[in-house]
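Quick one, tokens below:
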């Protein structure tokens, strides 16, 4: 298999369109079509079922794409192994970061990482969790910071960093505020059912945290009065601090604020902070060192 042909066929399969694939690859559609026809002639069978709006892989095409991805992964791992043997490795790898906490982690870790391994180039990319999972599976991202519950894991490898508890944040103007604590570490336990008459700022349905939050309200046997939903946990705690309503916050965002107190819920809900990588991927020395720094960061952050 020619590596350039592999790139072409994978792009067509992912875009389901030779037009979009040619735009993605920055080549003309006619040039891409010629390469595809040349390969199909060589193999003696079509790789795609062609329609105007949707190109689908044939059984032969699926075999080709699956094998092509394996070849790219083998090549990538081989290069990593060889670079680990070199005295002055110029290894480069990508790290996927979920918004807000991902950037905080990266900026805290990178200075120490760079001082220790100055020749290693690290490329941070901000993505949501589900997009990141897909990009890691495709081999487009090497490592990714992902927060999720066990049932949301796919076939990638998930390296445990920490368990993160979810807390209830309440304005100091709330009737139960005197019972709460400004510090999550000393937050008293309370039932969510006590807050069924209160307005909530919820996490957006696109977040991996949403199913966990939904289960909490189901277990508490009430539907929350939703002011609005947002993908930003920072926005949630700012709204609580402004006295607008209550919110469920991961421990990382349950920070001391002037007008907020915290409660620990009776269910002690939590999710997992992980670093994700492709299944069976070879992790270079640089990636392993980065993972060690991640682990240290999360142990200290959630202590």
């Amino acid at each position: 298999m020619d590596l350039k042909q592999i790139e072409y066929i994978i792009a067509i399969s992912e875009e389901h369109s030779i037009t979009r694939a040619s735009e993605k690859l920055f080549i003309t559609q006619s040039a891409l079509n010629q390469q595809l026809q040349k390969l199909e002639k060589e193999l003696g069978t079509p790789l795609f079922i062609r329609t105007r709006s949707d190109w689908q892989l044939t059984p032969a095409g699926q075999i080709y794409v699956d094998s092509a991805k394996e070849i790219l992964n083998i090549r990538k791992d081989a290069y990593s192994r060889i670079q680990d043997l070199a005295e002055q490795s110029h290894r480069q790898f990508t790290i996927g970061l979920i918004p807000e906490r991902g950037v905080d982690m990266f900026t805290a870790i990178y200075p120490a990482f760079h001082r220790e391994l100055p020749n290693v180039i690290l490329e941070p990319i901000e993505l949501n969790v589900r997009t990141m999972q897909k990009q890691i599976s495709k081999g487009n991202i090497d490592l990714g910071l992902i927060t999720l519950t066990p049932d949301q894991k796919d076939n990638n490898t998930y390296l445990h960093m920490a368990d993160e508890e979810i807390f209830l944040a309440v304005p100091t103007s709330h009737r139960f505020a005197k019972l709460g604590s400004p510090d999550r570490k000393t937050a008293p336990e309370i039932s969510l059912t006590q807050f069924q008459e209160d307005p909530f700022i919820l996490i957006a349905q696109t977040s991996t945290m949403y199913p966990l939050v939904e289960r909490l309200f189901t277990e508490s046997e009430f539907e929350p009065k939703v002011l609005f939903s947002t993908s930003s946990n920072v926005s949630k705690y700012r709204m609580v601090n402004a006295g607008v309503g209550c919110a469920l916050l991961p421990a990382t965002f349950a920070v001391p604020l002037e007008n907020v107190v915290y409660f620990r819920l009776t269910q002690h809900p939590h999710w997992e902070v992980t670093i994700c990588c492709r299944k069976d991927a070879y992790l270079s020395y640089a990636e392993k060192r980065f993972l060690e720094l991640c682990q240290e960061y999360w142990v200290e952050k959630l202590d």
